[in-house]
Amino acid sequence: MNAGNDIAIDVRGLSKSFGGREVVHDLSMQVKRGSIYGFLGPNGSGKTTTIRILCGLLTPDSGEGTCLGYDILRDAEKIKRQVGYMTQRFSLYQDLSVRENLEFVARLYGLADARGAARDMIKRLGLSGREEQLAGELSGGWKQRLALGACTLPNPKLLLLDEPTAGVDPKARRDFWNEIHALAAEGLTVLVSTHYMDEAERCHEIAYIAYGHLLARGTVDEVIAKSALTTYTVTGELGGLAAELDHKPGVDMVAPFGTSLHVSGRDAAALEASIAPWREKSGLHWQKSHPSLEDVFIELMNRSRDNFQ
User: In what order do the strands lie in the sheet containing 83-86?
Assistant: First the structure.
């Protein structure tokens, strides 16, 4: 299989099982070079396994494909040499300084000027002034920057981010994503798993994976449109409305959002019939609205639980 120059990952029919349980099922997808591709889905749904198969870190039980122009079955070692992997857990040396960690990584990858490479990365990521600070003494946001610097130091062509901003404050998350977009603009392909909807919306394309099955993919707008959800936002005296509407015919999702309630369904006619008795009740205000990515995410979660059972 030969992927075009503009395609970083091109795979078909990937499946993988552990202990008799299939965690990836017949997955096919393409990822463009220089794009940021987001993976969403419940915990234990196969996101990390999928990412590792796509970049040659795991061998699938069946299927085929290419990553960065290399065959994922025959050329796994070549692929891994061009991959940067940032895990959720900080994995650098806590008792080394920022500079020492980066210089160590540079030497590990055989960079000609380890000190210069570390110095340039410190400047790029705004770590100037913290060069001699021990990594273990950094806050979560600064640790995140250091980890990103370490995994991009050898200039990989593919960057894997496994829930990289868990436990990081909003400003640090925004700064992190600004840097990710800058790297993608320079040609780096990024695969990122996340549970944050605002982060998913920063991706060029997203895929929703539930218990090994790819349920949705495309741009955020495409995924929302393909969901075919009809959504109402309800405000006012909500009381026990959520419990009353839950599991009614046509009601696929009922979820509180602040002081309002989102009520959604894929069968518009059935939804309208079920909510009709409450539409005219005093104290309730119903407004038809566009479904959000979070609406789609919750509805897919509800559906995927049923599939798993």
Answer: 83-86, 158-162, 189-193, 36-40, 205-210, 213-218
Question: Confidence band (pLDDT; 50, 70, 90) for 4?
Answer: low
| pLDDT above 60 (res 2) | no
Helix H, strand E, coil C: the string for 48-68 is HHHHHHHCCCCCCCEEEEEEC
- Paired with 161 in beta bridges are 86, 192
Q: Provide the Cα torsion 120, 140, 206, 195; round to 10°.
A: 180
pTM surpassing 0.85?
Answer: yes
| 274 Cβ contact partners less than 8 Å away, ≥ 6 residues apart | 245, 248, 249, 250, 251, 265
Amino acid identity at 186: E
Sign, CA dihedral 234-235-236-239, equals positive
CA nearest to 159, candidates 140, 186, 136: 186
| CA 123/CA 132 separation, integer angstroms | 14
Q: Does residue 192 sit in helix, strand or coil?
A: strand
Structure token digits, residue 187: 């040609």
DSSP state of 277: H
